[in-house]
Amino acid sequence: MNRLTPSPIPSVDRLLRTSEVAACIAEHGHTLVVTYTRQLLADIRQNHNGCEDAIHVNTLPQQVVDRVQAALAPRMKTVFNLTGTVIHTNLGRALLADSAIQHLLTMMSAPNNLEYDLATGGRGDRDSMVEELLCQLTGAEAATVVNNNAAAVLLTIAAFAQADPNKQDIIVSRGELVEIGGAFRMPDVMKSAGARMIEIGTTNRTHPHDYERAMTDRTALVMKVHTSNYAVQGFTKSVDEAELAPLCHARGIPLATDLGSGALVDLSQWGLPREPLPQDMLKAGCDVVTFSGDKLLGGPQAGLIVGTKAAIGRIRKHPMKRALRMSKLPLAALEATLRLYLRPERLTQDLPTLRLLTRPVEHIQATAQAVLPALNAAFGSHYGVTLVPLQGQIGSGSLPVERLPSAGIALTPLQAKGKGRALDALATTLRRLPQPVIGRIHEDSLLLDMRCLEDTTPFILQIKQLQPLSTSQP
Ligand SMILES: *Cc1c(COP(=O)(O)O)cnc(C)c1O
Predict the structure, then answer these.
(1) Does residue 393 contact residue 357 with C-beta atoms inside 8 Å?
(2) Which of 268, 186, 280, 200 minimizes the C-alpha distance to 240?
(3) Within a 13 Å sphere around the CA of 187, how many CA atoms are in the beta-carbon half?
(4) Residue 457: CB partners within 8 Å, gap ≥ 6?
(5) Rounded to the nearest whole angstrom, what is the distance from the C-alpha of residue 224 to the centroid of ligand 1?
(6) Distance, CA 370 to ligand 1 centroid (Å)?
(7) Using CA atoms, how far apart are residues 178 and 386, in angstroms rounded to an integer?
(8) What pLDDT sits at residue 1?
(9) Which residue minimizes the CA distance to atom 6 of ligand 1?
(10) pLDDT tens profile 91-132
(11) How far apart are CA 252 and CA 254, in angstroms?
């Protein structure tokens, strides 16, 4: 901003007395500001290694203020999810319904009956907030909830594999040994839960007799895992729960199924692909069904476990249940979310996940039309800005091969040379906005899918505040 000033690094005290830094102290206090003043000066000393002639001394007060503000700014911020994936694991999955947010806030602002029985005045069980509702919605005899579905699976396996030292075998098809993401792989989960995993069948085909042959008096559980984040196609065969349950029960072996996403209502009524429902799995004869709270259910992070009284009782008694229990914040949100399912006709309005998944493509196109002028004004000098049909996804491992017809904006570099760099620069610019905009790069364009943009005003305002690209950029 100005010429290089060959002046020495100022002292902490001198910097603290400048008007900008003094104002910062008045607002935020001495401790924080001194910390970042010292840090700035230490960084300068290190970077300049004795040669102090490249320091812009008069910019130092502002640099202190910037560092203080950066330290106070939350790292977690809302973003615009324009990826086209509605339930995006990296972007926080399902959005909560208004009633869930309200209930959560209310429950946080005062003491509540989380573990207090208002009828008897004695100790209560936090599961009771949602158990009756879950039983009503799924037809289960009993239900319990934990921190997430990975925890639900881990706890279920542990509860069955550790009950009897002579019964630690858990049978699972090789076609269902899934990795859910990160380090959560079914074989590792089995091991860490103390189970001996008995793999049967092959990657593409498993038959009823594979299960039957593996069942012994050491079998603790037969486990089915919904292959939610990939699809095996072609010459395939798996044994579904309805076929498997009688084989298990004839030998007194319980059957558990992990649905992953697990919708509570049939999505095909809105033209969406049908996901298996927990209620179907229970009818088919499963003793335990596990599913996520923040995937298709549209609630907070949670692991829901429904099943028979005996199975749920055993799971609830395992010591790990205490370690994996739900916190009161998501529990309040879960309760309110589940209550929305008592009014199924209203779900596509009340539940953001379903509202977005069922959004008519004409609405999405209208949104794209509405944001196009602002994007064109900001980027049109260097990028083609066009309305395009797109294919989105449900996300979070639900229905991996299905596509949702959608619409959005494609930003395509006008210059043939350095296209990749131009796209990366654009994606970076959008990610650095106060409310970052997250799209996806596909071939030669940055695509902004408008399915999840319901209110265009804040988006347009933010784009308008961007400086139009100069001819020397990007
Ligand atoms: C997503 C998923 C899980 C993990 O659920 P979280 O709620 O993310 O812990 C487990 N199993 C399957 C099949 C899944 O799709």
Answers:
(1) no
(2) 280
(3) 7
(4) none
(5) 13
(6) 36
(7) 39
(8) 46
(9) 149
(10) 999 999 999 999 999 999 999 999 999 999 999 999 999 999
(11) 7
CA of 147 to the centre of ligand 1 (A): 11
pLDDT classification of 53: cutoffs 50, 70, 90: low
For residue 358 the two structure tokens come to: 């069922």
Average pLDDT over residues 56-80: 95
pLDDT band at 180 (very low <50, low <70, confident <90, very high): confident
Judged by average pLDDT, the poorest of 76-90, 141-155, 206-220, 460-474 is 460-474
Asked if 136 contacts 264 with a C-beta cutoff of 8 angstroms, the reply is no
91: left (phi over 0), alpha (psi -120 to 50) or beta: alpha
Task: Give pLDDT tens digits for 437-449.
Answer: 999 999 999 999 9
| Residue environment code for 186-213, b if the CB has 16+ CB neighbours within 10 A, otherwise e | beebbeebebebbbbbeeebbbeebbbe
User: Across residues 394-412, what is the average pLDDT?
Assistant: 84
Beta carbons within 8 Å of 342's beta carbon, 6+ residues apart: 133, 136, 137
- Report whether residue 302 contacts ligand 1, using a CB cutoff of 6 Å: no
DSSP for residue 224: E
CA distance 167 to 278: 27
What single string gives the DSSP state of each residue in 154-193? HHHHHHHHSSBTTB-EEEEEGGG--EEETTEEHHHHHHHT
The DSSP-derived string for 97-130 is: PHHHHHHHHHHHSS---TTB-TTTSSB--GGGGT
* Look-up of token digits 């059957």: 255
Residues 132-159: what's their mean pLDDT? 97
* Predicted pLDDT at 474: 46
Q: How far apart are CA 130 and CA 304, in angstroms?
A: 10
**40-54, 63-77, 129-143, 308-322 — which is least confidently predicted?**
40-54
Cis peptide before 474 (omega within 30 of 0): yes
User: Token match 């296209």: residue?
Assistant: 419
Q: What is the pLDDT of residue 399?
A: 61
Beta carbon of 228 within 6 Å of any ligand 1 atom: yes
Say how many Å lie between the CA of residue 292 and the centre of ligand 1. 6
pLDDT digits (tens, 9 = 90+) for 264-279: 999 999 999 888 999 9
> What DSSP character marks residue 442?
E
Nearest 10 degrees: Cα torsion 382, 388, 391, 393: 60
